[in-house]
Amino acid sequence: MNKAAKKFLTWLFVILALFIVFLFMGPFYIVDEGNQVVVTRFGSIVNTHTDAGLHIKVPFLDKVTSYPKLVLSLDGDAQRIPTKENQFIIVDTTSRWRISDPEKFYQSFKTLNNAYNKLSDIIDSSCRTVITQNRLSEIVRSSNIINETSNSETSENITEDTQELNELLTESSANETVAKGRSELCKLMTVEANKLVPEYGIDLIDIVPRQIKYSDELTESVYNRMIKDRNQVAQAYRSLGEGKKAEWLGKLESDKRTIASEAYRKSEEIKGNADAEAAAIYAAAYNKDPEFYAFWKSMESYKNNLKDYPATYSTNMDYFKYMYSPDGKR
């Protein structure tokens, strides 16, 4: 082997050794699917990658910091917040967010833990700001369905009693009308928080109250209000029942008077017909035998009148002619 060949082989081995050492120094790095990286050199950002793939860096000088590109969640701590009526509730929120700008995120936080702490403060502040400006009913309810009359029945099946009861329930209901509702307030919380987070390279997707609890002093007040509402509903049913009772009693009394009046009219009519028929019979009997007719009428008179008199002081009168005279004469 000549001198030139030996020199070539020597340089070849040197280059190969240097390449192997270069590979062991880790000049390549892989960005996985769902991750994004920030490359820094001496603390300064030199590059960012948001797409998956193989990339190269300067060994020992470049530092690769990886962040998730997926949607992250943050569960906040329960906090005691006053409503617009100064009624305290305990709110526990959860939120979804993602890193939209890894360069800004690195400059602001460096690590995810720092981001969690800062983002938690921002979310708690926006949640407190929105809740303190709204009533309790807006926070715990999403609609006015509790105030609305059920439309499950068709108009043909809705009776007058049902309409009257609905009117009484509406008058007795103490429920407040919801103008925004919890869903809208959640959007307002997100809008309020998004005023600050973009400068940190964060995109806040939403904020949702995971749990809303009444404070101890408010719990008793809510229970008392529920009892009051149920009592008002019960009173509405009682009022409707009393009204219907009076209505039916009045109708019963009116029907009774109508029936009695009709019965009296018919009885008088029957009596009149009977008297007319009796008079006709009496007249016919009188025409046949006037003396017998006078005798019979006298007997009826004795039967009806003398029983009311225990004693008679004189019978010397024409009235007693059929009682003390055998032939009906003096």
Structure commentary:
- With about 325 residues, the chain is an alpha+beta fold.
- The protein is about 50% helix and about 20% strand.
- Strand 7 and strand 8 (about 90-100) form a beta hairpin.
- The longest helix has about 70 residues, at about 215-290.
- The radius of gyration is 53 Å and the shape is rod-shaped.
Annotate the secondary structure layout.
Blueprint: H1 3-24, E1 28-31, E2 35-41, E3 44-49, E4 53-56, E5 62-68, E6 72-75, E7 79-82, E8 88-99, H2 102-108, H3 112-131, H4 136-140, H5 160-172, H6 182-193, E9 202-214, H7 216-288, H8 290-305, H9 321-324
Antiparallel strand pairs: 1-4, 2-3, 2-5, 6-8, 7-8, 8-9
Give the helix proportion (percent range): 40-55%
Q: Count of DSSP E strands?
A: 9
On the 0 to 100 scale, the average pLDDT is: 80
Biggest pleated sheet: 4 strands, antiparallel
| Beginning-to-end CA distance, first to last residue | 197 Å
Poorly predicted runs = 149-158
Short synopsis of the structure:
This protein has 330 residues and is of the alpha+beta class. 52% of the residues lie in helices and 18% in strands. Helix 5 (160-172) packs antiparallel against helix 7 (216-288).
Task: Fill in the keyword field for this structure.
single chain, 330 residues, alpha+beta, four-stranded antiparallel sheet, three-stranded antiparallel sheet, rod-shaped
